[in-house]
Amino acid sequence: MLQTLRQPWNELPPLSGPKREAAERAMRRQWWAVARSTDLDTPQPAVLLGERLVVYRTASGKPVVQSRRCPHRGGDFSQGKVHGEGIACPYHGWQFGSDGKCAHIPSLDNQSKIPGRATIATYPVIEKWGHVWTVLEQPAMPMYELDAWAGLDLEWLAGPPLDSETGVAVAIENFRDVAHFPFVHEVSMGPSPHIVEPLMVKREGLDIWMQRSLNAGNGDWANDGDCEMYYHCTAPGLATITYDYAKYGKRIVAGFPSPMAYDHVMIFWGVANERSYSGADIEECLRIEEMVYREDLPIAGALEPREVDWDGTYVEHSVPADLFTLNYRRAFNEFVGTALVEQAG
Description:
Blueprint: H1 19-27, E1 32-36, E2 44-48, E3 51-57, E4 63-67, E5 81-83, E6 86-88, E7 95-97, E8 102-104, E9 122-123, E10 125-128, E11 131-134, E12 154-158, E13 162-164, H2 168-176, H3 181-184, H4 186-189, E14 200-204, E15 207-214, E16 227-234, E17 238-245, E18 249-261, E19 264-274, H5 282-300, H6 323-344
Antiparallel strand pairs: 1-11, 2-3, 3-4, 4-9, 5-6, 6-7, 7-8, 10-11, 12-19, 13-19, 14-15, 15-16, 16-17, 17-18, 18-19
Helix pairs in contact: 1-6
């Protein structure tokens, strides 16, 4: 059983130096989703912390993430075509391999004269949970892993990416905030109690857990009945809920907002059911979770500021219902500190 942490509600350890700048530098060293695996029949555009990227799958099935700009005359590779193990620019047909080197220039009669410096930036890739992930600089830590899912036989279904005018931290906090349910999710969840019970929260380093019982009520969100909800967030950018139904098994929703800019994310997300799950099918689970997400978007997108105010410009007041939020912020601070210390070393 998780234990309630007793910590001052309004204490937040500061980051050293300009906090926003530190957060932006640290996030360049973290893994982020940039495309759904199911969309890679054609090259896909992506933006990560201001970097314009192309994501594609080679003929052999390898996912690739590279700079989107052709170094010849600036063509957009996301409009190009895959050629074997590389991609061709739509403007003049210059081809680049998955290693980033120019492999063919159609207008050149002697291919040995390809400019040696004609290359495009190529980034590390991991394909996981129905998505392609990358990192812009040397990663500060391994790709996210959740021990709680290790023994589960899961079927994943990626949801449609959702454009949200918030920062990563605001998006993660919104995902697992429970006090907003009665006001934002009255349609999907049905009427919810306004008073939030003492929360069962635990934090270890970058990981935060919370256990909460779901009383089904009459919203679509809980058509399968009562269950136990196990929240797990890992700073900076992973938020999950594992729903454990005594009579059906387990299903999951996971969100991983990807920072196009410091205060603007593309929310990549998906659902997963145990293959033995006997409740609603995975398409219905996705429909319900998407309904919840879309209720959040206009409210979260109008928050001021659009990202957590690490530099303390705005006044905020917290209450016990914010316990998970405050622990996530501590974890985020720890992530930034770890990433920048390793970078300096």
